[in-house]
Design a protein that fits this description.
114 residues, alpha/beta, four-stranded parallel sheet, 18% strand, globular
Length: 114
């Protein structure tokens, strides 16, 4: 199954979910992430929180949600509220709302990650 995690900036919530699913799925499923307004880089505290559990996200470049990503996906998982998360036309959608880790202290980002 191809799982596309979406949020606004693709700098925190969606990339965290993408990388954790890749880690625990052991190749049974594939994951990507994208955002409606990609940020410039992954939030530093997200990079650190994932590094702590053995996941390297330093190579992540925030991506814009586009038609190619939607066509690839079997399911889209929104990681932000319906009011701000991008729409995913033609793709089954699941909503998992997480707090935005942007500007949060590392201890709070750990809670979101866990």
């Amino acid at each position: 199954m191809n799982v596309l995690f979406v949020c606004v900036a693709n700098s925190g919530r969606s990339v965290t979910a993408e990388r954790i699913l890749r880690e625990i799925a052991h190749g049974r499923h594939d994951a990507r992430s994208a955002g409606s307004e990609p940020g410039g880089a992954t939030h530093p505290q997200v990079v650190e929180a994932l590094r702590e559990i053995g996941i390297d996200v330093s190579d992540h470049v925030p991506r814009r949600l586009d038609q190619e990503a939607l066509e690839w996906a079997d399911v889209a998982v929104s990681t932000c509220s319906e009011e701000v998360c991008p729409v995913t036309p033609g793709v089954r959608r699941i909503s998992w709302v997480f707090d935005d880790p942007k500007n949060l202290p590392l201890e709070r980002v750990r809670e979101i990650r866990d």
